[in-house]
Amino acid sequence: MILRVFYVLCAVLVAADFVIHRHVYHPWENLPAFYAIFGFVACVVLVLIATQMRKVLMRDEDYYDDDRDHGGARDD
User: What sections of the protein cross the membrane (predicted)?
Assistant: First the structure.
């Protein structure tokens, strides 16, 4: 039910973009549904960048494990 309400709300906001006059600063803001398209593209780009960053930042599952758990000696 909540998702349907959000979908209807999104459709109403995109439809309102064709009716309501906006004061724009840049010419590309006059494109219909510019902010909806811009937000979607920005979200996709953020997800793609995050998946690539994960490859660099990800550590092994046992990265923080104690050496004593694996039979190694610890220097305290």
Answer: 32-50
